Amino acid sequence: MLIDAALQLAEEGAEVSVREAARRAAVSPGAPFRHFPNRDALMAAVAEEAQRRFRAEIEVALGQAPAADPLGRFRAFGLAYLRWAMRNPAHFEIISTGRYFAHGSSTELTRDNAELIALTEQMLADAASQGLLRSADLKRIQIAGRALVYGFARMNLDGHFPRWGVAAGEIDRMAEGVIDLFIAGIAKA
User: What pTM was computed for the model?
Assistant: First the structure.
């Protein structure tokens, strides 16, 4: 309840505090401090919940992609990332920026991020071992892919697409097209 209240404050762009989250959750002002000694602890818990939801979306997408198709899985991962970020902008903001708390303070978030990075490394290593990639520089491909999905999600969050002539109803299709263009660029012809 308190985590949802803190998330609601973040979604509204309001300052998130333990006391205000307690007020919104209709609990006594002192009660949350037994669980969250300060704002950083509360926001770490909010980020961990956001990350769990994000991870669930990734796992569903990967479950629908053929295990023997590493580039298809890489594509599914990227699209799941974008779709989740576009549907959950406050969650995305919390887990992707340092605005709300120090990310290194959450061992769960750090561990989960490392697992997701390892997952993308494995997909690319599998693609390389199958001879599917133009370049052997897997780290560069991985960082370029991350920059692409992060940048696209940021552009959406920051309201850039209308300036680029992309209407709200076209953003999801544009996301697919951008990911497909990236995959075509890294794949052997």
Answer: 0.87
Check if the beta carbon of residue 26 is closer than 8 Å to that of residue 87.
no
Q: And the tokens for 58? A: 């990734």
* Distance separating alpha carbons of residues 2 and 8, to the nearest angstrom: 10
Query: Which residues, including other chains, have CB under 8 Å from residue 9's CB and lie 6 or more apart?
Result: 15, 16, 20, 21, 24
Q: 3-class secondary structure for the chain?
A: CHHHHHHHHHHHCCCCCHHHHHHHCCCCCCHHHHCCCCHHHHHHHHHHHHHHHHHHHHHHHHHHCCCCCHHHHHHHHHHHHHHHHHHCHHHHHHHHCCCCCCHHHCHHHHHHHHHHHHHHHHHHHHHHHCCCECCCCHHHHHHHHHHHHHHHHHHHHCCCHHHHCCCHHHHHHHHHHHHHHHHHHHECC
pLDDT of 136-154, one tens digit each?
999 999 999 999 999 999 9
Mean of per-residue pLDDT scores for the chain: 90
Q: In whole angstroms, what is the distance from residue 52 CA to residue 185 CA?
A: 31
Q: Can you tell me which residue has the tokens 């951008």?
A: 178
Quick one: tokens of 179?
């990911």
How large is the average pLDDT for residues 42-63? 91
Which has the closest alpha carbon to 71: 127, 117, 118, 125? 127
